Amino acid sequence: MTAPELTPWDTVQIARHAQRPHTLDYIRGLTEDFVELRGDRRFGDDAAMIAGVGRFAGQTVAILGHQKGSNTKENLKHNFGSPHPEGFRKALRIMQHAAKFGFPLLCFIDTSGASPNLASEERGQAEAIAENLLVMADLPIPIVATVIGEGGSGGALAIGIADRLLMLEHAVYSVASPEASAAILWRDGAQAPEAAAAMRITARDLAEFGIIDEVIPEPEGGAHLDPVAVIAQVRTALQQHLDAIAAHSISALLEQRYHKYRRIGVVHERQAALFDSR
Amino acid sequence: MKEFLRRTPRYFTSPKQAEQQIPDDLWKKCPGCGELTYTKQWLDNAKVCPKCGHHERMAAAEWIELLVDKGSWQEHDGDLQPADPLHFVSPRNNYAEKVATLQEQGLNESSVSGNAQIEEQPFALCVSEFGFMGGSMGSVMGEKIARAAERAADEGMALVTINASGGARMQEGILSLMQMAKTSVALARLGDVGQPHISILIDPCLGGVTASYASSADIILAEPGAVVGFAGRRVIEQTIRQKLPPEFQTAEFLLEHGMIDMVTPRAELRGVLAKFLRLYRRQSVRA
Ligand SMILES: [Zn+2]
Q1: Domains of chain B, first to last
Q2: How far apart are CA B235 and CA A58, in angstroms?
Q3: pLDDT at B71 over 70
Q4: Distance (Å) from the alpha carbon of B85 to chain A's nearest alpha carbon
Q5: Which of A134, B23, B226, B234 sits a CA distance of 20 to 30 A from A27?
């Protein structure tokens, strides 16, 4: 019984499937007594980013996640899961809130990227993302992030620095969406399928690069075919990782988080044979 | 790593080499106002048009020559070379070949890092090399920034970064995105020891560099007219299907919207940096 191998572009379609469980589905399936907390206390409330607190596995946790819609109406409400600066600043507020009360932070990544428009630039899209990265670097609470669908660019990373980074089997995570990558590399967004392959964006690729800590299996055909099963898989994985990191002191955790990100990258310390021989 | 730091840098484009690149033309036509300026006068003015103030791009070596005390520059990590972790192949942009071609032209990587002094005050300095793949941030730039932040923390001095970049290096995929995280964890530690990061945004600075270390700095300066933002103008115009005003995403636009501390003309930059280095020098605190 051999299922045909999915191409990276096939995987992108599964990761973006409208019926795939989104952040609010995970929140409903995983938590009790969830309360959504809204607004960045600076400018507004951004429905592309969900934030709140709830009970998970016997403790109060803080939750952040990009929210995509399952239909056009929902997508317009949630801006297709692409936050404006106020979305990232709401996330920042909840990160600091979680640290104040000692709540572990669970993040669900599902965005093609931060929203590119005039209003975002006026309100400092780059600064909003940059500030979250700096704060997550030494936020003194356990953080577990899960890529549940599409992880795209700085907009994904802005809630993605974590002690454990998990990824669903058919999720993708990339420096830019395949369409944007093709436009940047080849000035042709239509070559997105080729970019999806060249950019190495699947869970298997990210495991190979040592970026993610676990690939969470999906039902055959994808998470949209059995949301209950995949949410149960995510529950098990989150519990295991939260338990494992709870065994460490916060200072040990921050030290590990530092090294986890500090070591990422591949460089040669002298002129590489790779470039001599070609 | 200590042993590595003592090695002689081998790939640095020296200021001397940069000087030899004086254009043959006697006159320079300004891309800002179209006026002609005697080339020597234009170079003496650090490539700023004396008529309209247009700031022309400069190579990393020219920035170092302009800003730091004579003889104080010591390059670090100059022999870090890009690898090709994705084995990135493409009909038009084979990564390895592209890197080899640029290195034959004397450009090493998209960032030059070292220690320097201004008015005898030491600091760590990283300067973007926009001519190398649009100043894009891959593993090498991320590693250089992280090491510079650690060096500054260890040696108790400030970090200054001069940033021009098109964004993340696409050919390194997710590893380039993660350099945003890597530089951030290193800068958080610099902050923990009370040393400042001063970021200078020069034209153009976009994408992953602006959305990470360049914008989380304690002090942010920008050159007049520099284009700085997250998404590029072309992408935004395609998304919103309308033309953007000319001043959109300029240094002046950022200042007006509260995103930077000041717009600093090139001629004043050394003096401004000297002042900041004096003001933020660690003082003994009375209990
Ligand atoms: Zn001019």
Answers
A1: 9-56 (no CATH), 58-286 (3.90.226.10)
A2: 45
A3: yes
A4: 7
A5: A134
